[in-house]
Design a protein that fits this description.
mainly alpha
């Protein structure tokens, strides 16, 4: 069975698009990993350690841009950070 050149071209394009999307996803995951690590290090520097309570704010902070989370980590107290990022979600 011989495949048409048009079909083969579309197949190659689809493979390339899938490869590009996979690379983009991998870059985004790596970026998030780096942000979580930076946040963890900033918390450790600021408060001396990263205990279980402080670990809970790493993920919510990691969705922010550095321009947003760095001032928060620099200026807010431990209690203020925990209050700000551990508020129960409303079901409204």
């Amino acid at each position: 069975m011989r495949l048409s050149p048009v079909y083969l071209q579309k197949l190659a394009e689809a493979r390339e698009q899938g490869r590009q999307e996979g690379l983009k996803e991998a870059r985004q995951e790596r970026y998030q990993e780096i942000m979580r690590s930076a946040i963890k290090n900033l918390i450790k520097y600021r408060f001396g350690s990263v205990d279980d309570e402080l670990k809970t704010i790493i993920e919510p902070l990691s969705v922010l841009e550095p321009e947003q989370f760095i001032p928060l980590l620099s200026q807010l107290s431990r209690e203020e950070l925990l209050d700000k990022f551990n508020q129960p979600q409303s079901n409204e």
